[in-house]
Amino acid sequence: MGARVAVAGASGYAGGELLRLLAGHPDLELGPVTAQSSAGRRITDVHPNLAGLPSLGGRSFDAAETLAASGCDLAFLALPAGESAPLAAGLGSGIRLVDLGPDFRLADAGAWARHYQGPHAGRWTTGLPELPGARENIRAATRVAVPGCYATAAIIALAPLLAAGLIEPADIVIVAASGTSGAGRSPRADLLASEVMGAVSAYQAGGTHRHTPEIEQALGEAAGQAGVTVSFTPVLAPMPRGILATCTARLAGSPATAQVRQALGGAYADGPFVCLLPDGRWPTTAAVAGSNGVHLQAAADARTGRATVVAAIDNLGKGAAGQAIQNANLMLGLAETAGLTAIGVSP
To answer: Which of 43, 284, 299, 304 is deepest in the core (most CB within 10 A)?
Structure first.
């Protein structure tokens, strides 16, 4: 019998993806599955794709109060902004926590106040294992905050170039397209199929998107300096899942494409989930769907003096549930890849 884990907020898309991945995990046993507004409902009524899984066994969602007395080794918090902090405060130190929400991502209280409501809860260990030294920090941690989906793609794309001094930190532009599941499961008029199908639309541009300070925080730490400035424009695409992040930055000096690719390849050579594609092949979201994989490609444009790095991830996989399980594996002393794959579903 493996470690026992709980899922709080399991009725959302990220929570449902956690349940799907945990059902196939060789070393984890599923404990309480809570969803406050859906407590008492059958899990498979909310997530019909999970029908027939023996681990669910006709189960219904538990009330949130059951989590504190669950005796679990670790809990995943897949909750909206502002809800993880009060729940974590009531759980004590005896249970490891992996938060998929934003409550513990930011060190700067001012940045929190600009993008969220309620008090700043502080910062937990950043749960992006591919960052330098991150695996050791995560293994030693009992509290880990998973970065946002957009932030994950952008940080993986750019951090090695900043660390190597190949790009300037003050002129970074990111345009990233996401599937509709990134907006959550709550009904909204702008997410109706008739509004989304056949349309690509930008939103929360001009520095207002909440993942912007996460990206700047992580890239500043990768560069070892303050002053990283990011212009981020998110785009809603007519697909259910996936993120394609196109990241550009002014080159520092005149490195060629080979040097940019070498920096990325060297940074992720030992990582099980990041794939630098062969030169000339550009990422597509379809290739990483259903996986914890990241596909990267890069080029240096000598004419404009800018580097371009494109990253593709599944926003519910590496951008949320998959990355949460990757962190849990490290925290529990398991193989980092347990229950996960870098191979996407096609077509």
So the answer is: 43
Structure tokens at 41: 């409902």
Say whether pLDDT at 73 is over 90.
yes
Could you tell me if 127 and 327 are in contact, meaning their C-beta atoms sit under 8 angstroms apart? yes
Superfamily of chain region 3-147+319-331: NAD(P)-binding Rossmann-like Domain (3.40.50.720)
**What is d(CA 139, CA 116) in angstroms, rounded to the nearest whole number?**
29
Q: How far is it, in rounded angstroms, from Cα 74 to Cα 94?
A: 9
- Cα distances (Å, whole numbers) of residue 134 to 125, 170, 325, 327: 9, 24, 15, 10
How do residues 85-130 score in pLDDT, each as one tens digit?
999 999 988 899 999 999 999 999 999 999 999 999 999 999 999 9
Angle between helices 13-23 and 322-331 (to 10 degrees): 50
The neighbouring-strand residues paired with 276 are: 296
Question: Which residues are the active-site residues?
Answer: 149
How far is it, in rounded angstroms, from Cα 63 to Cα 95? 18
Q: Say how far apart CA 245 and CA 309 lie, in whole Å.
A: 8
Domain boundaries, given as residue ranges, for the chain: 3-147+319-331, 150-317
Class of domain 150-317: alpha beta
